[in-house]
Amino acid sequence: MSLTREDVEKIAWLARLEIADDEMSGFVTTLSNIIEFVEQLSAAPTDDVIPMAHPLDMSQRLRADEVTETDERDRFQGNAPAVEAGLYLVPRVIE
Predict the structure, then answer these.
(1) For residue 60, is pLDDT > 90?
(2) Residues 6 or more apart from 2 whose CB is under 8 A from it?
(3) Helices vs strands, H then E, count in the chain
(4) pLDDT tens string 50-59
(5) Residue 6 belongs to what H/E stretch?
(6) Contacts of residue 5, Cβ cutoff 8 Å, sequence gap at least 6
(7) What is the pLDDT of residues 5-46, one digit of tens each?
(8) Are 5 and 24 in contact (CB under 8 A)?
(9) pLDDT at residue number 95
(10) How far apart are CA 66 and CA 61, in angstroms?
């Protein structure tokens, strides 16, 4: 399937794109090539292809889900000019 100039003009109108007249033939050719490529992909036989979640047949090593950092919130908030209920208070920026 190839697109016509009118097809591309309609697509451009729907997408609210302005395409110059001298660029129109290039867009018609490029979009037609894309549609033809998608048609080729759609025609590929995929009935015997097993769906997979990952292209590699390997498992990923993960570290243990453990907290390794120490809780230093009290120390950091001790340096803050104003703290209330564990939250930093900052000056109002927008009135």
Answers:
(1) no
(2) 32, 35, 36
(3) 3, 2
(4) 888 878 878 8
(5) helix 5-14
(6) 24, 25, 28
(7) 999 999 999 999 999 999 999 999 999 999 999 999 999 999
(8) yes
(9) 81
(10) 15
State the Rg of the chain over Cα: 29
Tokens of 82: 């104003």
The pTM score is: 0.50
Q: Which residue, among 95, 78, 79, 77, has the nearest Cα to 87 in the 3D structure?
A: 77
Q: Which residue has the tokens 């930093």?
A: 88
Return the pLDDT at 23.
94
Instruction: Give the DSSP letter of residue 61.
Output: P
Residue whose entry in the numeric block shows the structure tokens 């995929």: 46
Distance (Å, whole) CA 47 – CA 41: 13
